[in-house]
Amino acid sequence: MKVLVTGAYGFIGAYVVAALLRTGHEPVAAVRASRVGTALPGIASIECDFARDTDPAVWRPRLQGIDAVVNCAGILRESGAATFEKVHETVPAALFAACAETGVKRIVQISALGDPADGEFIASKHRGDARLLASGVAAVVLRPSVVYSTRGSYGGTTLLRGLAALPLIPLPGNGAQHLQPLDADDLAHAVLAALERDEAVGQILPLGGPQALTLREYLALWRRWLGLGETRFITTPKPLARIGAWLGETLGRGPLGMTMWRMLERGNVLNTDDAERAAAALGWTSRRMDAVLAQAPASSADRWQARSVFLQPLLRVVLALTFIASGIVGFALPAEQVAALFAQSSFPAAWAPALGLTGSVADIVLGAWLLSGRAPRAALAAMALLVLGYSGFIGLLLPQAWLDPFGGLLKNGLVLVAIAFAAAGTERE
User: Using CA atoms, how far apart are residues 91 and 127, in angstroms rounded to an integer?
Assistant: First the structure.
């Protein structure tokens, strides 16, 4: 079949595309404009926008020659025009309507296991599922529990893997919360079965691995796989963990938030009847997490990724606060002291205070921008340009500054490396 995969560049979508290729299907990746032709080299791709493509007419030309659709598009956080309603409901509904009009034979929707009361992420996903099943197209809804992989991670699974890499792992309560982790390859095989088996049509199928693990057991498995030594836990009172989730919801941009906390507290597991129904409808079985991990030893790249989960946001905060502090210090310097810095150069001393104030404003603005979390890569690029400008300007006017015993200019090299490392962690943003 020729299969359109939305969200093909995402964590789950990439596994679906790979499974389609392995089994002789022809995937077509529906991706953001910036990813067309680059997201998955060698795979045909088309442009789509799940924040704006609300008209079925926009989708109809994209579906010419398409036999089936797998919708893997989704967001963990709202951002600008990309709201839960648009990404999980309105735009998919337009896609489903266009599928009905163009004769697409099958739609498989990747949803999420959970209770709508846990948050709008889950609630909007489930409303989108209902729209799909009412579209008139032969459809299957898959609702996986926590999806993990030994070849990378995303969202909540990245957060949990990062926790496992900490020297001392905080556990909310005693870590007795349950989840049913599912390997990404096993989920991709379930998608293939959903595309091919008529028994699955019209059903909402919860999916999970064969083990219901506690959070403590799940984190211990990851730490053992990463080869990071003895697992040490510290019990975190639930009220404190709830405050941390609220702060993540309010101030952060990642998966840590109230929805994840409520899902964890409730338990993200299947009941026995649902597991048996999914296995029968799909003719499918999943593998135990310990068996999957045993078949794919961790590499140094895995350990590096896990250890950097919390270092990346920490580095951004430190950079932002450093720039803001630098700007405040600049405002506090007396004008005559700023002028004295350039006394030994050809730069007009009268201009020095204005230049110093301009630099201070720039520092504070860029620090606040990075701290806001909006377009972090652009903010970091602007910071790098500012540091290069500072270094070049002062270094040319006052070459003796390079010999400053405190290494003022020389340390800018370290700042630039820190900015580059922070920018490397913004790939998904």
Answer: 12
Query: Are 282 and 193 contacting, i.e. CB atoms less than 8 angstroms apart?
Result: yes
Is 208 in contact with 270 (CB distance < 8 Å)? yes
pTM for the model stands at 0.83
- The reply to whether 151 and 262 lie within a common domain is yes
Structural domain includes residue 307: no
236 in the same domain as 155: yes
Residues 350 and 415 in one domain: yes
Residue range 263-310, pLDDT digits in tens: 878 888 888 898 999 999 999 999 999 999 999 998 888 898 888 888
Please give the Cα distance from 407 to 30 (Å, whole number).
50
pLDDT at 15: 93
- Tens-digit pLDDT profile for residues 65-81: 999 999 999 888 887 78
Inter-CA distances, 358 with 258, 328, 363, 390, Å: 40, 12, 9, 12
Q: Nearest-5° angle of CA 106, CA 110, CA 116?
A: 125
Question: CA–CA separation, 109 vs 125, rounded Å?
Answer: 10
Q: Specify if 135 maps to a domain.
A: yes
Residue 429 — very low, low, confident or very high, per pLDDT cuts 50/70/90?
Answer: very low
**57 class by beta-carbon count within 10 Å (0-12 exposed, 13-18 middle, 19+ buried):** exposed
For residue 230, pLDDT over 70 is answered with yes
Give yes or no: residues 329 and 287 share one domain: no
Instruction: Measure the CA–CA gap between 4 and 45, rounded to whole angstroms.
Output: 9
Indicate whether 138 pLDDT > 60. yes
pLDDT in the model for residue 196? 94
Q: Is the pLDDT of residue 428 over 60?
A: no
In a domain, 303, yes or no: no
In one letter, which amino acid is 123?
A: A
* Mean pLDDT along residues 225-233: 89
In whole angstroms, give the CA distance from residue 369 to residue 111: 34
Q: Which helix (H) or strand (E) holds 319?
A: helix 300-332
305 domain residue, yes or no: no
Planar angle of CA 116, 119, 123, nearest 5 degrees? 40
Residues 281 and 341 in one domain: no
- Domain hosting 16: range is 2-298
Last residue of a domain, one of 298, 332, 349: 298
